[in-house]
Recover the amino acids of this structure.
């Protein structure tokens, strides 16, 4: 298994541009989520999905959209990038139950100028 | 408010010594706690977890202690090695979906 994969690893955007961060997992996990990590901080939940076709907001959802058309993929869309969205983005997945181990991807480093 | 915090932002220990990383949590209803290790440029890696019906759980060289009375969580690493150098996060699960992370403690191992 490749686990949780993310692309791209690094991206530079100009303010106002849009882009999609890709996330995929090959473990047949039901639950997937997106976090952002700012310097010296813990991770904050952006959006999550408990299964294909179901998504919900986390702590910091503004400026981001998600969709879950398949079990494997959970893309994160930035509609109009802002400098405040400069961060490292992590995708995570787990089997489904709350007590199950959550696995994280390697992250996407985003710089918005 | 909702917060999972750490008592110390940095911790330096000698190689071979034991390390203790502390964490305070605020939600007394949280029923699941996890410690993650994050190395530079990588995503968080699961270390050990504990449920609220337990007060201690041991893994390989790691032990997590949970004190629900004072809402305190700790991670003990025995015989620290250079590879243990990383940032360690505690996280608590609110209900079934929301994982709240603490700020992180940077552990440095001195030779």
């Amino acid at each position: 298994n490749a686990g949780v994969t993310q692309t791209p690893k690094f991206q530079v955007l100009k303010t106002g541009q849009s882009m999609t961060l890709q996330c995929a997992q090959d473990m047949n996990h039901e639950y997937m989520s997106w976090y952002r990590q700012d310097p010296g901080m813990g991770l904050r939940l952006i959006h999550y999905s408990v299964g294909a076709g179901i998504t919900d907001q986390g702590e910091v959802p503004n400026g981001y959209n998600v969709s879950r058309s398949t079990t494997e993929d959970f893309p994160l869309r930035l509609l109009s990038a802002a400098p405040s969205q400069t961060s490292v983005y992590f995708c995570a997945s787990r089997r489904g139950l709350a007590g199950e181990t959550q696995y994280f991807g390697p992250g996407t480093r985003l710089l918005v100028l | 408010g909702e917060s999972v915090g750490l008592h110390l932002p940095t911790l330096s220990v000698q190689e071979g010594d034991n390390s203790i990383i502390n964490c305070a949590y605020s939600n007394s209803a949280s029923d699941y706690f996890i410690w993650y290790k994050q190395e530079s440029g990588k995503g968080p890696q699961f270390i050990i977890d504990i449920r609220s019906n337990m007060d201690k759980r041991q893994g390989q060289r790691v032990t997590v202690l949970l004190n629900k009375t004072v809402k305190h969580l700790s991670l003990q690493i025995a015989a620290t090695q250079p590879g243990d150098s990383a940032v360690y996060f505690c996280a608590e699960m609110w209900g079934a979906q929301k994982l709240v992370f603490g700020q992180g403690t940077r552990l440095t191992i001195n030779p």
About this structure: Chain B touches chain A through 27 residues (CB under 8 Å).
